[in-house]
Design goal:
Length: about 210
């Protein structure tokens, strides 16, 4: 009798612009999946935090050491066969590719999408965080939505948390392949179907393809 290969816990990157709720969703998702949560903001060097607090956006060179630190954490989890939920802006495809290379076949992305005005309002109301609302425009200019070959799901960041968690947990379970590797076709994976203009339908309206902010 053939035995199924043991499943590995997933490594999930919760990404999106500032104010999209990465930390809130990430912590709740980690609790649901029973894996550790890592706050990506904590890995920023002091120089990056000071730069953002002063209203200056980071460039690729600024983000490089931060991404290397996060990639090392992802690699440790992957090599140990442990799961992980990482809240990390990961706005560019190149940033996600670096994390994916560290995780091997186990990385899956949850993109929290929201409009520019909502993001700006959320950040303006937030206290105790170094990111000022005036940097929101630069984040949207940097954002590259998940592509078709990136395993993951894009959800409306304004959706109720229980709806988001139910969708993500179902998607992670449905996309597990042999040995727990996460499979499937890019954003939306096994959930949703394409409607007009490429939008994903289903999931109480919470699932959709990320579209550039107008």
């Amino acid at each position: 009798m053939n035995r199924a290969a043991p499943e590995r816990p997933p490594i999930v990157v919760v990404l999106g612009v500032s104010g999209s709720g990465k930390s809130t969703v990430g912590r709740a998702l980690a609790a649901d999946l029973g894996v550790p949560f890592v706050e990506g903001d904590d890995a920023h060097p002091a120089a990056n935090i000071a730069r953002m607090a002063a209203g200056h956006p980071l460039d690729d060179a600024d983000r490089a050491p931060w991404l290397r630190t996060l990639a090392r954490r992802v690699r440790r989890a992957a090599e140990a066969g442990e799961g992980l939920v990482l809240a990390c802006s990961a706005l560019k495809r190149a940033y996600r590719d670096e994390l994916r290379a560290a995780a091997g076949s186990g990385l899956w992305c949850l993109c929290l999408a929201l409009d520019r005005d909502t993001a700006r309002d959320r950040v303006a109301r937030r206290t105790g965080h170094f990111m000022p609302a005036r940097l929101i425009d630069s984040q949207f200019e940097t954002l590259e939505p998940l592509e078709e070959d990136e395993p993951g799901l894009t959800v409306d960041a304004a959706a109720p948390l229980p709806v988001t968690l139910a969708l993500v947990c179902a998607a992670v379970e449905s996309l597990k392949g042999p040995g727990g590797a996460l499979e499937g076709k890019g954003p939306g994976g096994a959930l949703g179907r394409k409607g007009p203009e490429g939008a994903l339908e289903g999931g109480a309206g919470a699932v959709r393809r990320a579209m550039p902010d107008k």
